[in-house]
Specification:
This protein is α/β, with parallel strands linked by helices. It is built from 10 helices and 7 strands. The protein has a 7-stranded parallel beta sheet, sandwiched between helices. The chain is globular and about 50 Å long.
Length: about 270
């Protein structure tokens, strides 16, 4: 067993896990990194020793997240930007800024996304397009922009946030599961295409997790879904972030093209 593996698990599991140094010397970008799962990913990466750039939708939320991080983790090396992720020129410029500031980019966590619950009878075409732009186009744009950098460095890791609805679908709001099905397709295809450049591409598919997105769902829907979770509870953002950390690290050096469910074995 490697010394890195032993050190990783020395503190036990979950909140007691010692991860310092796991990403030492690496730089990461986290989209949708100002709150929820994305914010927990930023914290995990920084705790593991990485320099982290978080991307948010507005300067106000980026500044708020950076301020909170500085309070919680004063020694963390973090920066924040707010490019429009559905515009490739802005994405490319922002990623260039990160490369110039930190010198390299080793990890990309494509976490930004939006959801919807409208019936097909009420679904506006422009709302469907909006979901696809952020949930799918942004994943493609960010990956396209970092891939040449990672290739030149000798490799890297891309982790996309999918969803359990990419596997099961959902009873309304078809744009969201459709977008996550697309994310899964991008993940598996890019893993095959970029493997020769030592760039690993994986995805996590969270189930019901205590985030703002889930808080916006009707209580009866959350209760119904939670009742089908064998572990008996929704997941925590930190538990998803732990999985992303694993996939980003060298502990997952031979893992690519996977859609890893983090859903407590949810039954729907």
């Amino acid at each position: 067993m490697s010394s890195l593996f032993i050190e990783y698990f020395k503190g036990g599991y979950g909140k007691n896990m010692k991860i310092a140094g796991l990403l030492e010397g690496k730089t990461a970008i986290v989209t949708g990194g100002t709150r929820g799962i994305g914010y927990e990913i930023v914290k995990k990466f920084a705790e593991a020793g990485a320099k982290v750039a978080l991307f948010g939708s507005r300067q106000e939320t980026v500044d708020k997240a950076l301020g909170k991080l500085k309070e919680e983790m004063p020694e963390a090396e973090v920066m924040g930007l707010c490019p429009a992720l559905d515009k490739y020129d802005e994405v490319e410029k922002a990623i260039g800024t990160v490369k110039e500031a930190f010198g390299r980019i080793d990890i990309l966590a494509n976490n930004a996304g939006i959801s919807a619950r409208e019936s097909i009878y009420d679904y506006k075409p422009e709302d469907f397009e909006k979901i696809m732009k952020l949930n799918v186009n942004a994943v493609f744009f960010c990956t396209k922009a970092v891939a040449p950098i990672m290739k030149e460095q000798g490799g890297g890791s891309v982790i996309n946030t999918s969803s359990m609805v990419s596997i099961y679908g959902q009873p309304a709001g078809c744009g969201y599961p459709a977008s996550k099905f697309a994310v899964n397709g991008l993940t598996r295809s890019l893993a095959r295409e970029l493997g020769k450049d030592n760039i690993r591409v994986n995805a996590v598919a969270p189930g019901v997790t205590r985030t703002d997105m889930v808080a916006a769902l009707p209580e009866e829907m959350v209760a119904r879904i939670s009742a089908g979770i064998p572990l008996g509870r929704p997941g925590e953002p930190e538990e998803v972030a732990n999985t992303v950390l694993f996939l980003a690290s060298d502990l997952a050096s031979y893992v690519t093209g996977e859609i890893l469910s983090v859903d407590g074995a949810t039954q729907v």
